[in-house]
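2 proteins. here.
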Amino acid sequence: MAQTSPEPAEPGMMDHAKPGMAEMPGMDGAHGMHGTTADGAADTPSTRAFMKAMGDMEAGMATPMTGNPDIDFMRGMLAHHEGAVAMAEVELQYGKDPEARALAETIIKAQEAEIAQMKAWLDRNGG
């Protein structure tokens, strides 16, 4: 049986395998992230936006370690928080549930303050 080549990754998407990624929703252990869920749900604009946000977050968290646990922590958490804000923004763009939307707004407000704190710390500490 002939195999087709994988689709090219979208900008900002990771295109390499990591242990355990095949078990994650929307992940393809051989080719990174794609805009579908594990159960084959429709490829929608919101799915693509969530997958991009998660791919960007993972790429940011994959920054090489410095050996300084404080800097490594701040860099990893910065990418994690930026990913949370991006996902919350997708919820506000596409979501309809008032409780989910309110939580997204709360996440954005809290995470943006922490992002600013982490960036300032990194600037002061050579990160």
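next one coming up
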Amino acid sequence: MLPNLLTPNEMQAQLARRCKTLRLTAGYKRATLANRSGVSEGSLKRFEDIGEISLKNLLRLAHALGRLPEFAPLFQPPEAESLAELKSTAEKPVPKRGRI
């Protein structure tokens, strides 16, 4: 399934499957990854089974598996398509709150 067509629940399940695959590929038992990441074994099991995990623990697991840099581009603003757009974006202050 294409990533942009996934629902949040489907993405959650996909991330959990990928994490489990990475753990097994590395040859880690759940206890080993839990110990290396600082995430409880119960939280790791819950993540692998039903996809539920806190952001902090997800980042800890990614770090322990050597995949933390993949989170760096998340929520980056879109790239400017022209010099004028870049200048306009730099001059415009970021709103302090939403209006809608």
